[in-house]
């Protein structure tokens, strides 16, 4: 089953989302579907980067599908949009 974070990924729940994503990566997930995300803040960008680091540490590439425009905008603002390239 493809991992999907909660509808909201903000500072209020980033810790829980981070842990859930790390468990999914540990179990072999290589793709995360972000299509259901409705509200994000800078904590979402940090969470996605942490997930990528965890996947790389396991020797795997992590891909993000259906990245919402607001999350791409935040990533661009922080200069990390290339690291969060969505799956076409």
Gyration radius, rounded: 12 Å
Spans of at least 5 consecutive residues whose pLDDT stays below 50 are none
**Beta-strand percentage range:** 5-15%
Instruction: Give the biggest sheet.
Output: 3 strands, parallel
Largest sheet: spatial strand order: 2-4-5
What CATH architecture label applies?
A: 2-Layer Sandwich
Helix amount, in percent?
40-55%
Look at the structure and name the CATH superfamily.
Answer: STAS domain
3D shape: globular
The CATH class: Alpha Beta
What is the topology?
Blueprint: E1 8-9, H1 14-26, E2 31-33, E3 39-40, H2 42-57, E4 63-65, H3 69-77, E5 86-87
Parallel strand pairs: 1-3, 2-4, 4-5
Defining key terms:
single chain; alpha/beta; Transcription Regulator spoIIAA; three-stranded parallel sheet; two-stranded parallel sheet
Q: Would you write up a description of this structure?
A:
With 88 residues, this protein is α/β, with parallel strands linked by helices. The protein has a single domain (8-87), classed as STAS domain (Transcription Regulator spoIIAA, 2-Layer Sandwich), CATH 3.30.750. Helices cover 43% and strands 14% of the residues. It is built from three helices and five strands, in the order E-H-E-E-H-E-H-E. A three-stranded parallel sheet has the order 2-4-5, with no helix packed on it. Strands 1-3 form a two-stranded parallel sheet. Strand 4 (63-65), helix 3 and strand 5 (86-87) form a beta-alpha-beta unit. Helix 1 (14-26) packs parallel to helix 2 (42-57). The longest helix is centred in the middle third of the chain and has 16 residues, at 42-57. It is globular and about 30 Å long. The chain starts with 7 loop residues before the first strand and ends with a strand. The model has no long low-confidence stretch (mean pLDDT 92).
């Amino acid at each position: 089953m493809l991992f999907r974070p909660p509808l909201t990924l903000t500072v209020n729940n980033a810790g829980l989302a981070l842990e859930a994503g790390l468990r999914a990566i540990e179990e072999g997930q290589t793709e995360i579907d972000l299509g259901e995300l409705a509200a994000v803040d800078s904590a979402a960008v940090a969470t996605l980067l942490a997930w990528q680091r965890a996947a790389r540490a396991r020797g795997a590439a992590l891909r993000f599908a259906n990245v919402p425009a607001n999350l791409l905008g935040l990533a661009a603002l922080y200069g990390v949009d290339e690291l969060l390239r969505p799956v076409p």
